[in-house]
# Entry
Amino acid sequence: MDASAHQELEQCKVEVQTGQTYREEIPGVVRELVACCLGRDCFDHVSPEPIPSREGVIAIIHRALGLLYPGYFSRQRVDAVNLAYHLGQEAVALFEDLSRQITLSFRHECLRYGLPCLHCQEKGQEEAVLFLRALPRLRTILATDVQAAYRGDPAAKSHDEVIFSYPGLFAVSVYRAAHQLLRQGVPLLPRIMTEYAHSQTGIDIHPGARIGESFFIDHGTGVVIGETTEIGRRVRLYQGVTLGALSLPPDQVESLRSKKRHPTVEDDVIIYSGATILGGGTVIGARAVIGGNVWLTGSVPPDTKVFLKKPELIFRANQVKGDRGQTRDR
# Structure
């Protein structure tokens, strides 16, 4: 072995030894992590019972969408011949997946908070069937949302385009499924569902909000709809709209968790981009139009337009240098 090869070999041995030295620090780190888990200052879920799976909930969303919009999101062709078979297979698969995740969510609540036994597995199956029974009603109301998007956006070339590609419809579809589970008293899962839609679309709809039929979010990025928001029928929102709560001192947060903190928007209201509407006592009356970038913490009567005064625009030509280095207006 020549000197160069010998030197490289020795260097490799040094690197291996150095790596081993670093690895030997890992057990000490693990001991500190275990100590943190046994304390009360950090959060963990160290339990023999598994918690609901975020990936499992996301899979449930896509299975539910397959039943809410048959044929749009399935890999196989769906026609009149195989429709009943296809829906039957998908419904059974959704029941199995959903009942397991609901069972885990109820069991998590029972064990962590010492609640009376709910017979979690039976409860999970019962709530999964109730959700399946609600699917025809959800399909009917989502059809009005699709129609509202198509009627409200001249850029939409077909209902199919709306279903396939509009982030607003995806967020609203997930919201309506999550809201149904929330109404049934299922913990954890509804919020996981709507936060997944939030991460995919930039549209944040709390599952506790109450939203009427024919709801349309155009473009959608940055829309926030808080937990106790109430929205009537045929309402249209544009990107960046916030239906939120007023900021509270820390000592008042707990007492207001179950109180109405977000606005009410009545039927046929249009709210343009960037508008911010705050407060549980704020009511936007029917057929009102709220202009872009408006900030509201008070109610608006029906049939009212609210908009900012048109700003003064100044147009000034750029200055350019002449042949002798002198500046002149262009």
